[in-house]
Structure formats: C-alpha cells, structure tokens
Amino acid sequence: MSVRILLRPTGFVDSPFGHDGKVARLAGGLNWFASVELLTIEGNRRVASELVPVEGIEARFDEAMAADWAQLMAPRAPLTMGERTIRLDQPQVMGIVNATPDSFSGDGHANDSAEAAEAGATMAGQGAAILDVGGESTRPGAKVVWEGDEIERAVPVIRQLAAGGAAVSIDTRKAAVVEAALAAGARLVNDVSGLTYDERMAGVIAAAGVPVVLMHHQGDPASMQDDPRYDDVLVEVYLWLEERIAAAEAAGIARDRILIDPGFGFGKSVAHNLELMNGLALFHGLGCPLVLGASRKRTIGALSNEAPADQRLAGSLAFALKAADQGAQILRVHDVPETVQALKVWRGLRDQALTPRR
Questions:
Q1: What is the DSSP string of 200-250?
Q2: Dihedral angle of Cα 171, 175, 180, 186, to the nearest 10 degrees
Q3: With 22 labelled, which of 161, 186, 202, 235 sits at a CA distance of 20 to 30 A?
Q4: How far apart, in whole angstroms, are the C-alpha atoms of residue 61 and residue 267?
Q5: From CA 235, how far away is CA 256, in angstroms rounded?
Q6: How far apart are CA 98 and CA 95, in angstroms?
Q7: 3-state secondary structure of 128
Q8: What H or E segment, with its residue span, contains residue 171?
C-alpha cells in the first residue's frame, strides 16, 4: 500500500511582521500560517500526524512534498469571466440564484425568470462577485431534471443577468445545458458531479476555455444522504479531487481554470461536514482556488434544534468566516449582503493587522 504525506497549514497568525522565516503565506492571499500538520496516509486514510513549525520545514521535504508546498503558497490566478476579472487574493462571494421550484432553501424562482434575474441583479448590487444560476435542484432526495426543462429555466435568467454586466456561472451536470448557458452569457461552469455525470461535459468546457468548479460528491442527489460512509473523509475527498483535476487536465482543461469544492453536504453526515471544515486548509495543496458552499445547509439545522433553512443565517456566517480564515477564495451563499458585510469586517481586521506600526 502506497504511503505519502499531505500538508495541512495550521497555526494561523494575523500578519507576517516580525516573523521572518517563521510563517508562510497561503495561496497568495491574506492568510499566514506558522505550523503545518504532516499527515501520513496509507491508501485512503491517515495513519500518523506530526505538527511541525514552518521554520526549517523544507529540509523535511521529498520531491512530492516540495511540489505540494509550492502549490500551497502559489498565488491563485484571477478568474477571467468575459469582460469581468475576479481577483482571488481575497475571499469573494458567489450568490446563489435558484431557477428551480424545489430548492431546499425555499428561494426558487422556477416560474418567473424575470423575478429570478431581478434577485440576481440585487445580489450583484449587494456585492456578489459571481452569480451562480441553476435550473436543477441537487438537494438531498432531488430527482433528475430533463435538460430541456433545465435550459428553459436557467437560460433566460443567465441572458438577462449577463446583459446587465454580471459575471454569471451555470450550476449544472449536463453538457447540453452548459452549451446553452454559455451561448446566453455564462462564463463559468459549476459541476456538482465533478465532470462524472455527462461524458461530454469535459470536452465542452475545454473547447469553450471557461473555468470550471469540480465538486466532490458521494452518490447522486436522490440517495446521497441515505448512509454516507468514509474511512477518512478529509483524505478521501482530497484524493478524489486530485483525480478529478488530473482527469480535467487530460481532457484539455487548463489547470489555472480549475476550481475545487469539497462538496459540503453532498454525501456527507454532520460529522463528515464538520471534519471537512476543520481541515479545509488541506485542500490548498491541490493548487486550485477553493470554493465552499455551506450556506443554509442541514448541518446548521442539526446543530441548532433543527432550525429550518430560512433560519440558518448565523450558522451560515459562522461557516463562511471559518472558511475565510482558512483561505477559501469563493464562498457560495444565499444571504449575500450579510456575508459581504461579515467579510468586510474580516477584511478590516486583516488590513489593520497588516498595517505597519509606526
């Protein structure tokens, strides 16, 4: 059984001042860390863990660890979405625009594309850098939607938002929907199947040259929450995403156009989701921008007397800030103005810490 070591940044500090050689910058962003947890894995699980300081750590590296270290620290290239450029050296908000009748969060707009587009435009005005439009619910228990219906729901919304100058992504598993969405003005694909659902998907995205989010999942939406099991969820999700990145590159998708999402709530128990959040910084070792979608998810309800989806704002913000503290570049959320405000305060704290003392 193969043995390798993964690197999880930890020991985060407010600023690098006065810590020359003792801290490292995470993914070219606003986070610095002083320690690394070296995770020894055999197969798909951890067998040992060692916490070491950043100072002098490179003396411990073999070739594979050195490559992972370089990817941890390398700045993430901005996203080019048509005429819009989205910087990834700080957390950005992706607003969720559900053109569906059965969104788990109760905010779908399946029967009124103008209403959905208006909701998206409002999010853009409130500070969402990207608007993620979906015409098929992938909530637990959801059934597959015919691609024609999905196109009919999503495309008019995308066309109106893109015409207004917004950076729009399409949330879909289907290549035909991507083709229609790109023609309407979408400039990013968010695939919850990680390019595993539709065999044409990778080729369509590669030919279009647009960025893609590869999300981890276990099972399909109809059954993914029945009884999700992992030997080691943090390691298994990491290795799965590593394989999907390689598959995407083999299909002709440039690595600097690949984003990753650990798939919070997609075939995971409450314990799995919490373990992923605690270990989120590990995924920067894959060298791709990190997307996190924990907004209004059931885990929040499970931790707060089964609060319904529309009463999970505080928990959503807690997860958003936890993700920002670990360097996540894009936060996919329902509650845009509240998340934008929380991130402005987070950024203010960072800016103050990075202001040299006189």
A1: THHHHHHHHT--EEEE--SS-TTTTTSS---S-HHHHHHHHHHHHHHHHHH
A2: 40
A3: 235
A4: 34
A5: 23
A6: 10
A7: coil
A8: strand 168-171
With tokens 């979906």, the residue in question is: 134
Q: Is the dihedral of CA 235, 240, 246, 252 positive or negative?
A: negative
* Topology classification of domain 79-350: TIM Barrel (3.20.20)
Phi and psi dihedrals of 24, rounded to 5?
-130, 150
Place of tokens 């987070």: 346
> Would you name the residues annotated as active-site residues?
297, 332
Task: Measure the CA–CA gap between 211 and 206, rounded to whole angstroms.
Answer: 9
Q: What is the pLDDT along the chain (358 residues), one digit of tens a residue?
A: 689 999 999 999 999 999 999 999 999 999 999 999 999 999 999 999 999 999 999 999 999 999 999 999 999 999 999 999 999 999 999 999 999 875 554 555 556 789 999 999 999 999 999 999 999 877 777 678 889 999 999 999 999 999 999 999 999 999 999 999 999 999 999 999 999 999 999 999 999 999 999 999 986 766 657 678 899 999 999 999 999 999 999 999 999 999 999 999 999 999 999 999 999 999 999 999 999 999 999 999 999 999 999 999 999 999 999 999 999 999 999 999 999 999 999 999 999 999 987 6
- What is the crossing angle of helices 313-325 and 270-278, to 10°? 40
Q: Which pTM does this prediction carry?
A: 0.94
Tokens of 21: 């050689």
Q: CA-to-CA distance for 182 and 50, rounded, in angstroms?
A: 46
Query: Does residue 327 contact residue 290 with C-beta atoms inside 8 Å?
Result: yes
